[in-house]
Design brief:
- With 336 residues, the protein is α+β, with helices and mostly antiparallel strands.
- It is built from eight helices and eleven strands.
- A five-stranded mixed beta sheet has the order 2-4-5-11-10.
- Helix 1 packs antiparallel against helix 2, helix 2 packs across helix 3 and helix 3 packs across helix 5.
- The chain binds zinc ion.
Amino acid sequence: MDRDQKHDLPSRSGAEQTRNWINLVAGLTHSIGNEVRAIHDETSSMLDIIDKMPHPPEPLWEQTRFIQDINRVRLGFINFLEEFAECLKSGQGRRPIPQNLKEIPLDEFLPAIRDKVGRFECRNLDPDDPNHQVQLQLNKHLELPMVIQFDPPDQTTLRSGRIPVLEFVAYEFIKNALRNCSGKQALKIVVETRGEWVSILFINDLNIHEKLPPPGKPGLGCSQCRKIVPKVFHVGNSDFSDTFCEPCLRVQIDENLGRSWEPGHTSQGGKGLGLFVIRHFLETFYFGRTHCGVTQWKDHEVYFKITIPSDLAAAIGRHNARFDTRPTTPLTRPPR
Ligand SMILES: [Zn+2]
């Protein structure tokens, strides 16, 4: 991607207005963040008190833990938003190297996030709606084993990265993967390190059902190409309920994957912001890329992939060096 491409500079008042909005969003995020952090601290000390009781009441402990779990997921999102606002302020220009970069051991980090998804998502289910697709899928997959594979096997860390960003990203990806798994296989995560880049692939197998014609009938019609075929397929737990022949199913899955990055897209009742926000953030501020596609058609496996610099400080250094050597163009005032 060409990061040195020319951007249309907004007029002075436009830039000022943008800055005001960014400051407003940053301020709001900060004040909500303070409240979320206060809830976290309070529930932690309540749990400490309950633990010290001679006969701790189980329901009280459960309820407090529940509040803390829900709040912790909010905290991840708030951390991400704060990061977003900070990055918006620095825009496309020189970027300060953040002080809070940490080495992230992915072999511990990813299973911890997966645990968090499992604990929160299963408690977040609506008990009055036992037929809800999300509920059915999650109930089935919360215990799905997770397999992490590193390539090369000894490179299991990010040299320096931001934990809040990566937490939010991993949470959204794992949640999406669990919701869309058929559960036949494990939830797979493949971490590939190539030079200065680390790619994390979240792989799941789609929930594909086949439908056979009733006895005596030669086949069923594909709702896309209208051909009569021996059997048709549909993707359970998804937006489209039509049945397709195999080639049309493949096309539908590719199109559906492509749409999953669009703002407002949601497979099951979410707000459809997660993947859109992640793509925008990673590509604009984290020097990253996002991809998705079919990895293995035979097992109906699809992947969502993020590629980020293994060392964020170095990536910002490279960005700043390019920014500094950019040829300067004389300022011309637009005619009034
Ligand atoms: Zn077809």
